[in-house]
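Q: Start with the shorter request: fold the first protein.
A: Done. Sequence, then structure:
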Amino acid sequence: MTEHVYKSLELTGSSKVGIDDAVKKAIAKASKTLHNLRWFQVTEVRGNIDGGAVSSWQVTLKVGFTLDD
């Protein structure tokens, strides 16, 4: 196993579809400017309510990536 040093940051993705979609959107957006993304950890899930129904989701996650050599 190769030894790595990781840096992590916090992201919040949102979606009107669901939790999984919010996570995927956050990671896709981060991958446009960051490289070597390796893992994520969901730390919080929230939702918005409109007219008595769930209207959207917000998911906060930590994303880890390896630092360049």
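Q: Next, the second protein, separately.
A: Sequence, then structure:
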Amino acid sequence: MDIAKNHSFKDKVVVVTGAGGVLCAYFAREIAKTGAKVALLDINLESAENYAAEIRAEGNIAKAYQTNVLDLENIKATRDAIAADFGTCDILINGAGGNNPKATTDNEFEEFDLPAGTKSFFELDKGGIEFIFNLNYLGTLLPTQVFAKDMIGKKGANIVNISSMNAFTPLTKIPAYSGAKAAISNFTQWLAVYFSKVGIRCNAIAPGFLVSNQNRGLLFDADGNPPPRANKILTNTPMGRFGEADELIGGILFLMDENYASFVNGVVLPIDGAFSAYSGV
């Protein structure tokens, strides 16, 4: 089903960060189908431009902008370029983020006599941890500082952040990423309160485990069966399956749309097959 047809953002300027990645590029493509003018921001200009070209080939409006979400002056320059091309921002999707293997442990639990070479909590790399917190938290805060200034007082203005179900319950092995996404959920609520008097709503989605071309090899073996860690995910997902990228867009469009969600503010919406709600018993 083409969910986008239920929403109209005609002539609205929607800024999507992290849009050089598969998931946020998909969000941009679906949002463009609503009539919005979509700005795809990513540090990888070539990737963002390829996706923007696909959107334009479908008859919709999009342009890519090379942007480092950790560089405040660069973000400001991007804002000025978007304003010249499309007008000022109406809706901001903060999609930039990610994890780093330098801040991921090899073991789920600390144990006596771990095998030699195991990267435990004690060997996590300080630089890797800083990168994750900067990319996820500052990479959401700084674009919000820049673009929200132009959104004040605009009808239907709102921000959608990307949190994670591990913000509700931290996953093993990834303490920095879990902590950074918990910070995004908290920041989303903070922004909702802070901007409540000037007409900017702020919400977030918290995706669960999704299947994509990028991670299919991690979630399934050559025979199509989940390896042990992936099987744990399925066992603890009451719906008993992984999600698909297109199962996120309905939540995003709902939160974006003033006609549907005008009184929805400060919400972190889990889209995870009830993973975050399940205690395991």
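Q: Describe the second briefly.
A: The beta strands are 13-17, 37-42, 61-66, 91-94, 158-162, 201-207, 210-211, 243-244, 268-271. Residues 126-151 form the longest helix (26 residues).
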